[in-house]
Specification:
Strand content of chain A: 5-15%
Mean pLDDT of chain A: 89
Largest interface: C-D, 36 and 37 residues
InterPro entries (chains A, B, C, D): CTDL_fold, DinB-like, EgtB, Sulfatase_Mod_Factor_Kinase, SUMF_dom, SUMF_sf
CATH class of the largest domain in chain A: Alpha Beta
Radius of gyration of chain A: 22 Å
Number of helices of chain A: 11
Strand order of the largest sheet of chain A: 10-9-8-11
Pathway (chains A, B, C, D): Amino-acid biosynthesis; ergothioneine biosynthesis
Structural class of chain A: alpha+beta
Order of helices and strands of chain A: HHHHHHEEEEHHEEEHHHEEEEE
Protein name (chains A, B, C, D): Ergothioneine biosynthesis protein EgtB
CATH superfamily of the largest domain in chain A: paralog of FGE (formylglycine-generating enzyme)
Shape of chain A: globular
Keywords (chains A, B, C, D): Iron, Oxidoreductase
Low-confidence stretches of chain A: 175-192, 335-352
Oligomer: homotetramer
Distance between the termini of chain A: 59 Å
Helix content of chain A: 25-40%
CATH architecture of the largest domain in chain A: Alpha-Beta Complex
Chain lengths: ~425, ~425, ~425, ~425
């Protein structure tokens, strides 16, 4: 029979494995990149990949090693400034839009920094230092790094996509399961139309939302709480490229009345005519993907669209976007879907498409009743962004497995579209 | 016994009276202005008063006379362009931020346009033309004009306030009841502190919200619907200048952690250090009002603050802003408050301050479940602004009497503060 | 025989007459305007006419009355801030681009200010106070006010021109001689073509430039100095609308190689396709003038064009713009032209067109060798603008008579075009 | 006796040597850089070093190989777009400010492109293909590449300088002669003061300017021509850091009257308080150099200042900047100086400092009388920038030897200061 000490040791060993595995996943994502790909920032909201590599490391250094490991020496004092994203309580931070101005530290220096921090994290987790808060922050840190893994896919796609050189991210590094990128898989999706049979309906009543489990969830997913919903339907499939193309062909981008006022201003000012990675050449539509440019797959989910576009499409269709509450109920109450979520990395097993693209909801991101932010520096993690952002639900093909949760609340500004964002329609009954 | 015809005639006569009275109120607000005051636009969101005079008139011309009066001739075809605010379905409109570039039409020409339209509206209402939609739009038009009456007070205050000449809006034209402006009245407010006795608490449960009456309400106030609330308290009084000053003196504007991320960026970029009309001179605080500049009244409600400032103040105080649902419940369930609202134009009768300032809620402006926008051109009235705006509740001293309603949903962007906006705190129990 | 005292008195009386006459001319220019026309600023570089009325008055108050008249009291201390244009040594000044934000002082208040200052200037000039510097500054002040008279025409034209209401400046107030505005006169201009007979040639050698006379000239026109010129020709007529239209029709605005690099960027960014006041409707070209919109007169000089456009036109034509030295020599050495300049306000007497439009030169505005700026506050009058401006020569139809001088150096930034600017071609021999 | 053929062959061999030597110098400059340093663009006017490597290569490919070598195949068709700087006649070009958005082509790919073009250039020059224009363009191309060598030093300094990591460009790669960077050498400069003995005077008269020799010069240096100058003095030494610091300490950056109007606006808006690479820490001034940060050397020439700063310093000193004509005369007529220029890369041999820093002149960049631009695509080389730029004369320590010429006309916009720019004072006599 194991003593409680050895149980703890075994739990710690598992934690360390988990930590090293998450860290390794990040390195894997960057491995196919050229050094030059790590350094550029073609847009203020896109970060250079080497910044992600450094920032996720800074998180563990600043929140764990500095606080819990006696005599820990920072790798480089300048990194406090350079790899702090926006935590005012952690001192000054480099301006986000100027991350791409910095050629140094070099990629190899950042990787050395990662190794140094990983080494010390290993020592710490193998030691008998045991602070409850340490494990709590470690768990957040691992989820934080996973969020940046998805951001890396987004940013890499943008960096390669703006380049007219037609660069392809190395296929061999794309997990096979990440079907979104695999043109072959997508084209096997059943041809669907938006008819009655494809709507799922929910009754009026009180529903429970928010995270109620015993595993990890962010502060903004709590507390679990009641909400009152009215009868609604939600589409069983996300909107496809083909359906979206019909909107374009019906003058959707030239018809003001489908659009929010701010959306129309955005569209006119930015000369928006189609989703982010679409290109038209000689009448044929193409889409840039991490596998290179392909003829647009009309059966694949439309992706990389802004809230403005999602909302305008829904207006054109005579529907609306779901609220985040409706979407969460949909995720919860549909057992086959729930199974699907678990199996998400084997999308070939199912004809449904939950988890392929983040779906915009019409809910602006705000605090749940009774919301309590993290304490300390992490107070800045979620709450201070509750303004002018919309919630997206469901996860996408670039989302790490551990990040799929019914209660997960992703959020972006309504004009942003470099994430893997799509549409699931809803309507009142 | 009256025939139904004569009943209608009498109802129509009443409607005409009402119409003419609303129209006259608008003229009254502008009467103390110099001609020059009518023409300038010191800020993109502030409109020249003569534009308000024209736009409210265009509304009746375009939505009623053109549609329902046979052979009606527009006063001037150019006014369709110049006085359309943003209705895409009504053709082109002049760019909002360039309204102040137009010296013509002159004020006297706009007044002649008003007289022409009023004359034809009178003829129409005295005729036997009877379309149900006509009366519906007329009612909206009158409420629309009342909204612009409040905007006129806001814009006039801004126009006079940016001017270093220390201009005073003519006192005799300020209705006596508009106590906010009357320094004497304000200083008689009881000195209040934020203690337990001053909180009103509400229990968990299902509440009904939205307009359910038989009179006028905008489309965005419907339908009446259930919402599930958790126990909360709401302060019985709005935050005073004195309380807000304590926030300033405690380095509130220099402490990032009280602020939303966007709020902090706004504050830094715009060099914001205090509410809009406050000025400090030799250590003494002053406030610009429509009666000129006065020593800051510490007992008056703080006003002209942004959502960012309201939210930061609440954080500093360890409280939060109420949701719009909580605020509406507060307005509904407090009978003395309800009476107060009715009596609002006699604020001396009460020690409370509902209706003095619009109070920011933490709710971003979105559609009620089952929301149905107006049909036709008026579809653009409310729905297309449901993005990046926060709801304010309760009304202010510049709000026309007919506009106080528990269900009324005012909305502004989080950085805006030229409206009469203030703070009422809330907290979870 | 007059005593020297009475001579002085008579000279002073003349000076006062001259002063009052200049002041009255300014009032005359504004007389046809509506009050509203005085207040707006549709562009950062255009000033509200009431600002011109105030600023020219401030000049006399601040530089003469305050300094030379004992016990003079300023009309309003705030006007020091509001009507200072840019003189840093005269204290703070209101931001130029925000002049149109100020509804106050009202037009009648500004006129009262003018009357007050004129009254005190009269008293001063009738007194026995006699300071040499006073008369010197007075002379500059009168020329300064005449510069603003031309600016008033420019700004009024712009204010009326941006307005879609098709406003016409009152014809009766346009001096008959101002032929540019008189469509009839212009169309009688001889049809000209750009052939040898229409070039005037000059030989290589040393020429004298700059003001050498005994009357008034600005500091930047001195000293008179030698310059070495190479043989050149200069066109006897300015480029006509018809010739310029040929440039447009030959894809001039779509062909990068005719344009300066900055010019092309300006054109693309500002969507420039033709001169400022030109409009095309159903294939017909129109031009907005102070007399309203007219069919484009192909024989009238092209006007309201930028340096970029002038330079591109010259490139297209295989010619170049003259240097300011060449242009001044042309003005000097052509006796018939010289006569013309004197008679400029009777343009019907001649077939030539000097003085109709300011002509762009390829010379960037810089100091003459040995240039000495004014002393004191007026040091800021000219020298500090010697950067990124091009010189224009010759005067325009809106230029007051006293402002035509061979040595006069007008200057504007290369993208500006709301002044009456045109083209006279030149070439090397 | 050599046949004319073998003479040509020998001349061609020399040309090839020269070509390869220039190309190799460029590679040498980039050799100490990390790959990441090649890719970033911290400012719109700074280009990523790998872009310079590609652009200079594109020049030879597009202007020589494509035109003169039969069957030449471009290395990559996309490079036509990416490495064209601004030549509209060479097709589309990538936007300058977005060069840093491109991670591809990689540095190794650009180097392969260089090798490919060098290989074909070698073949071409070893062939019997002989077109007079080919050699002419080749010569321009080599000088063009040398201009980019100086730009590389400027851009590398900026890229390393904005980085808080305190990066040092590898010393061993800085040619020893490049004294500016060598703190030791600079501090041996004699202490100088601005007294009579240090001025050199020139008499009134006609001087000859412009290139008149038989070697290479750009189109904008011709033709040789007369100019009339008035007596002037020019300082024998450039302004030192110590002298400039006195200007700062005398409130130079806070006193509007020293500054051009645009200069003051620039200073206020950009919060400029000192030269570009100066930093103050605990009262001590430091300067960032390619050798890292050093205590400011008070005897070294002030460098990296804008025209605005140079002009303001001269005003404060009661002097002025020289015209470009005066500066060229100074360079011509001072035999010891002339020698110095030849010996420039041995600055230890002399106590003078011509060629250390480019000196601002008060002359705005314009065409010489009789200027004829290059033909064809190279027409865009110089002439289209003759607007809003000021001429700098004399060369700097980063200028390749072959680029020092009395007639050389460098030019920058008045706010730019990332080049090695300094001040030499002048005055009228």
């Amino acid at each position: 029979m194991l003593s409680s000490d050895s149980k703890m040791l075994s739990a710690r060993a598992e934690l360390l494995d988990c930590y090293l595995s998450v860290r390794n996943d990040t390195d894997d994502i960057c491995r196919p990149l050229a050094i030059e790909d790590h350094a550029v920032q073609p847009n203020a909201e896109v970060s250079p990949p080497k910044w992600h590599l450094g920032h996720t490391t800074w998180f563990f250094e600043e929140l764990i090693l500095v606080r819990f490991m006696p005599d820990y020496q920072r790798w480089n004092e300048q990194y406090r400034l350079l790899f702090n994203s926006y935590y005012k309580s952690a001192g000054q931070h480099w301006i986000q839009s100027e991350r791409g101005n910095l050629s140094r530290p070099r990629v190899d220096e950042v990787l050395a920094y990662r190794a140094y921090v990983d080494h010390h994290m290993t020592l710490l987790l193998q030691s008998d230092i045991d602070e409850p808060e340490m494990e709590e922050v470690l768990e957040i840190g691992m989820h934080h790094e996973q969020q940046h893994q998805e951001l890396l896919y987004m940013d890499i796609k943008f960096i390669l996509g703006v380049n007219p050189m037609q660069v392809t991210y190395d296929d061999s590094f794309l997990p096979e399961a990440k079907g979104l990128f695999v043109k072959g898989v997508m084209s096997e999706l059943p041809k669907t139309a938006l008819n009655e049979a494809n709507w799922e309906t929910f009754e009026e009543g009180i529903y429970q939302l928010g995270y109620g489990g015993e595993h990890f969830a962010y502060d903004n997913e709590s507390p679990r709480h009641n909400t009152y919903l009215y009868p609604f339907s939600i589409a069983k499939h996300t909107v496809s490229n083909g359906e979206y193309l019909a909107f374009i062909n019906d003058e959707g981008y030239n018809t003001a009345r489908y659009w929010l006022s701010m959306g129309w201003d955005w569209l006119v000012e930015s000369h928006i005519k189609h989703p982010l990675y679409w290109q038209q050449e000689d009448g044929q539509w193409y889409e840039f993907t991490l596998h290179g440019r392909h003829v647009l797959d009309l059966n694949a989910p439309v992706t990389h669209i802004s809230y403005f576009e999602a909302d305008a499409f829904a207006s054109w269709k005579g529907c609306r976007l779901p609220t985040e509450q409706e979407f969460e109920v949909y995720l919860q109450q549909n057992p086959s879907e729930q199974g699907l979520v678990t199996e998400l990395h084997h999308p070939n097993n199912t004809s449904e498409d939950v988890g392929q693209v983040w779906c915009w909801t019409r809910s602006q991101y705000t605090a749940y009743p009774g919301f309590k932010p993290y304490k300390g520096m992490l107070e800045e993690y979620n709450g201070k962004f509750m303004c002018n952002q919309f919630v997206l639900k469901g996860g996408c093909i670039a989302t790490p497995v551990g990040h799929y949760r019914h209660s997960y609340r992703n959020f972006y500004q309504p004009h942003q579209r470099w994430m893997f964002s799509g549409i699931r329609l809803s309507k009142d009954i």
